[in-house]
Design goal:
Layout lengths: L5 E4 L2 H10 L2 E5 L14 H4 L3 E5 L2 H10 L1
Length: about 70
Amino acid sequence: DLQNSFVIGDRLTDVELAKNLGSKAIFINDETHLGTNEISVKRETLNEFIALETNNWKEIYKFLKKN
């Protein structure tokens, strides 16, 4: 059930994968900008596919528990 699934990753390419799959992303953003030069779309385009942006695993757990 990709529409109700999440890709969890720390690279923008992980967010792009979520976009391509038709799912949402949980972006673990440590401000390292991993994958910035590898995505095929503008960074701003990916924002609508990010359901949660954090680097806190407790937040991720709480978010997934609610959803």
